[in-house]
Each structure stands twice: as structure tokens, then as C-alpha cells.
Amino acid sequence: MATVQFFNQFPCKTRVQNPSNSKPLSKPPSSLVPMSALTRRPSFPPGEFAVSRSDFRVRVIDAEDELDPETSEGGGSALLMAEEAIESVEETEVLKRSLVDSLYGTDRGLSASSETRAEIGDLITQLESKNPTPAPTDALFLLNGKWILAYTSFVGLFPLLSRGIVPLVKVDEISQTIDSDNFTVENSVLFAGPLATTSISTNAKFEIRSPKRVQIKFEEGVIGTPQLTDSIEIPEYVEFLGQKIDLTPIRGLLTSVQDTATSVARTISSQPPLKFSLPGDSAQSWLLTTYLDKDIRISRGDGGSVFVLIKEGSPLLNP
After folding, report:
1. Full DSSP string of 26-69
2. Which domain holds residue 245?
3. Residue 22, pLDDT above cutoff 60
4. For the segment 144-202, what is each residue's pLDDT rounded down to a tens digit?
5. Which of 57, 64, 103, 299 stands 20 to 30 A from 13 (CA)?
6. d(C-alpha 309, C-alpha 299), whole Å
7. Is the CA virtual torsion 25, 31, 36, 39 positive or negative?
8. Which parts of the chain are beta strand (E)?
9. Residues 6 or more apart whose Cβ sits within 8 Å of residue 112
10. What are the pLDDT digits (tens) for 216-251?
């Protein structure tokens, strides 16, 4: 709270009257103000007026007058800064939407053409220059939560994303969940097939090394318990090693297989997940967060790869 300074007291002099020389006043001296003048309400025109002290001035503003911010001290610069801030936010929102739109149909970057990759890279660079959170590690509440991978240039994930490696099985979701209270990170890949869904995840601890960088140390891997579906859906065909395989002839077997799957599902789903340790040499990495807000996080890995993630629940996940 700012210190409030009081006005200096007005100096005054007390006149002492000598009783021996005092004489009764027959009439009020001309220097005294008549009582009628004291009781009359003063009228001040719009503008300025001064009281007895020349250094204590009061400005009277007419109700119809408008205060021009350009003429008030600091008003013009404050207004300009507010307008620039609003314009910057609007530009950032347009860039975010343009980036999400350019990711559509790229299968997290796997099927993006070179032209699309160049366009995405340019939008990422523009967003990074407008990062509203210059020190992400000081804003852990924004980092906290589940983030869905929307795009990556990390070639190590491409074999995992490639279709046709395992028939009827696809990558349904890749996510990263950050617990800022316990400084833990969980990377998870969810696989979906006609018979079941399962996941493979890694658990890690992270340490803050700079305002933008965290060091990650992986501790264990987890293979989730397959969750078998009660209802089996078989597509008309699948692609395997570049060839289309017609699945229409096996549709007649669905009834008996579905009954078996229902009984097996209750048994397998009750089993605990399988955990395994990770080798120490390859269980460390670092991550640099170059853009962060409530919707989007852009990170760069130690190999130069880029990751674009969207916060779970963000409207950007439903374009």
C-alpha cells in the first residue's frame, strides 16, 4: 500500500488583544465579511479556481466534459499498450487455429507432405515468437494435466504410427500426463483393435533445469491390461504390407467369436498390468517448452524434434 502524504498544516497567527487598550466596537469594521456572504452558496464556473493558498488548486470539471486520455498523464501510453496487447492476443488465436487446421489429415505428422511440414514449421515458429509464458517451469499449473499429441517430427515414432504393421490394430491416442505436484510424467500410447484396446506407457520423474527446460528420467514401462470389447466390429478390408485383404468371408464367424470374447474379457481385464524396468543409459532425456498456454504446448526434444500437444478438454481438439 502506498504511503499517503498529508498536506502541511496551514500556518496561522493568533492575535492577542490587550484588555487595557480594548474598546468596544461600535460597528463592524469594513474588513469583516457579512454573515449573508458566508451563508450564500458560491458558484464556480467550469475550469479552475483557487482558494487562499496559491499552491492548493482544485479543478472543477463539468459533467458534460469528456476527459481526453491523450492529454492526461500516462493515459495515451496506457491505452496504446492495451490496444497492442489485445491485437497480439487476437493474432495468437488466429495462429493457433491455423496451426490446428494445418495438422488435419497428417496422422500426427506421419502422412504430412514436405509442403505441409514447411507450413506447419512456419506456424510453429510464429507461435513460439508470441509465447505468452516465457518461463513455463514457473507456471507448472499450466503444464499440469493430460496433453494429446497432435503432431511430431520425431522419426522414432513413425514406425509406431505406420499402418499395416499389425493387421486391424491402430494407434488410437498418444498422450503425455504431467503431475506437477509430484514432478512425474507419464507417456502413453493407446492401441485399438476389433477385439480389444490396450496401452503401453512409461513413467518418469522430471527436474527443472531452467525456466524452459526439464530433465526427464524414465523409471519403468507398463503394458496395460487389454480391455476386450463385447461387440466386435470387423472392417470390410485391411491393408497389410501394401495389399488390401478382403474380410467379408469371415463375417459369418462373428457370432461364435463374440460369445467367446465376452467370457474371456471378464477374466483378462481383471489381471494387473505388466511392469518392466528401463535400461539406465537410454532412460534420460530433456524437453524444452517453447510455447505454452491453456490450450497448446509446443516442445522440442534433445534430438531437435518438435512436438505439438493439445490439452485434454480444449475446444481445439474438436475443430
Report:
1. SS--TTSPPHHHHHSPP---SEEEE-SSTT-EEEE--TT----T
2. 90-311
3. no
4. 999 999 999 987 777 666 654 556 678 889 999 999 999 999 999 998 877 778 888 99
5. 57
6. 8
7. negative
8. 47-50, 57-60, 145-152, 170-179, 184-192, 196-208, 213-223, 227-228, 237-240, 243-246, 274-277, 284-292, 296-301, 306-311
9. 106, 120, 151
10. 998 888 988 777 665 556 666 666 555 666 666 665
Contact assessment for residue 265 and residue 232, using Cβ atoms and an 8 Å cutoff: no
What does the block give as the cell for 121? 514449421
Closest alpha carbon to 245 in 229, 234, 254: 234
Beta strand 184-192 with 196-208 is antiparallel
52 in a structural domain: no
Count Cβ atoms within 10 A of the Cβ of residue 296 and give its class: 0-12 exposed, 13-18 middle, 19 or more buried.
buried
How many domains, the chain? Answer: 1
Is residue 5 included in any domain, yes or no?
no
175 by Cβ neighbours in 10 Å (0-12 / 13-18 / 19+) ranks as middle
* Predicted TM-score of the model (pTM): 0.64
Whether 269 is in a domain gets the answer: yes
